[in-house]
Amino acid sequence: MNNQKMTHSEETLRNVFGKFVEGGKIESIEQNRGGLINQTYFISQTGSDGVLRKYVMQCMNRHVFPKLPQLMENVFRVSRHMEVKCKASKNPDAKRGFLNFRCALDGQCYVDSEELGFWRMYRYIDHAVGRLTATTTFEAYSAGKAFGNFQSLLSDLPEPRLHETISRFHDTRNRFAVLEEAAKKDAFGRLKDCRDIMEGLFNLKDAALAMQEAADAGRIPERVVHNDAKLSNVLLDEEDGRAICVIDLDTCMPGLALHDFGDLVRSICTDSQEDTDKPEFIRVRLDMFTALSEGFLAGGRGFMLQEEKCFMPDAGVALTTEVAVRFLTDYLSGDVYFRTKYPGHNLVRARAQMTLAQKYMEVLPEMRAIVAEADKAAGKSTVDEAAEIAVS
């Protein structure tokens, strides 16, 4: 076992594991220290058939996720649908393209115990690694392709609609309304420090709402959305870095495909930190945006409507502005949601994200041209693949 003390006792972990897997022998238990919300363990076990297998077992955070049974129902439906689609694919990589959750021995898709906590388990994906941030265009392409493929695989998920486990998560209009209310209350006397950011964000409001208004008018369809799209939620092949599997499905619920793409743009297409205190140096990486767009459209294999593609550049503006609004709201409300490292941290974050959104606005024409070219390339690739299949 790992010599470093784990969050849960070995006895507890063995007890929980035994509720998922019967018999065999546990060879090792290792805690993944990187998670901030759930407690994650890697468990190697030799089964009664003599085969060594590795599992990921997680204790879920009840405070962050108050609707855990509904969350797990979403996760199981999404992962099972992806499993069927991946196993039917001729691409050998697809066999590692989904999270294979294991039911408990009582048939439930989780273990819910007042004494032990709320647990789930899925298979460990071999020869795959994670990256926190994209530093190369290939990593940006890989992230785009992974989430494009994710959206494509789930584009035909049958009814019923997934549970909305976090209400109005990407309701940008409501986010602005909540900000206005926090500014009116000014409960901590902080409005005087951020009037320029308030003005800048409300100048971005029309652009940030364009995508939502198109959805409200029925021009953009509701889809299954990951809602935490970033490179760190993609497993990459440890040898060549190609995208293997999208992970962390806890926020999967109804939304727009553009929400995921916009989050990728926000997190990947700049080389500045989210909380940089030097916003004047923020710049847009159009090379990263090109790679990301090409990957997303290639991975999606034609599932998106033309109207959705037209809003891909706008999605970066919308999601970046929305995050800035959330940071500023939290600052005015006394820093109650986002973890801060120093006084005024949320104000710094809000200014940085507002500046990035403004920078995206400045290059929207270039970004539109990039998406149009990427769409042409993806369309040609799809036609070529279809021709190859027909010939074979």
Report on this structure.
With 392 residues, this protein is an alpha+beta fold. The protein has 2 domains: 10-124, Phosphorylase Kinase, domain 1 (2-Layer Sandwich), CATH 3.30.200; 137-391, Aminoglycoside 3'-phosphotransferase, Chain: A, domain 2 (Alpha-Beta Complex), CATH 3.90.1200.10. It is 47% helix and 13% strand. It is globular and about 65 Å long. The relative contact order is 0.12. The model is unreliable at 382-392 (pLDDT under 50).
Short description:
With 392 residues, this protein is of the alpha+beta class. It has helices at residues 10-20, 68-87, 137-154, 172-185, 195-203, 205-216, 257-268, 286-300, 306-310, 312-332, 345-362, 364-391; strands at 25-32, 39-46, 52-59, 111-113, 117-123, 128-129, 223-225, 234-237, 243-246, 253-255.
**What general outline do the C-alpha atoms trace?**
globular
CATH class of the largest domain: Alpha Beta
Mean pLDDT across every amino acid position: 92
Tell me the strand order in the biggest sheet.
Answer: 1-2-3-5-4
The percentage helix is: 40-55%
In terms of DSSP E residues, the strand content is 5-15%
Regarding quaternary structure, what we see is: single chain
**Uncertain ranges:** 382-392
Largest sheet at a glance? 5 strands, antiparallel
CATH-derived topology of the largest domain: Aminoglycoside 3'-phosphotransferase, Chain: A, domain 2
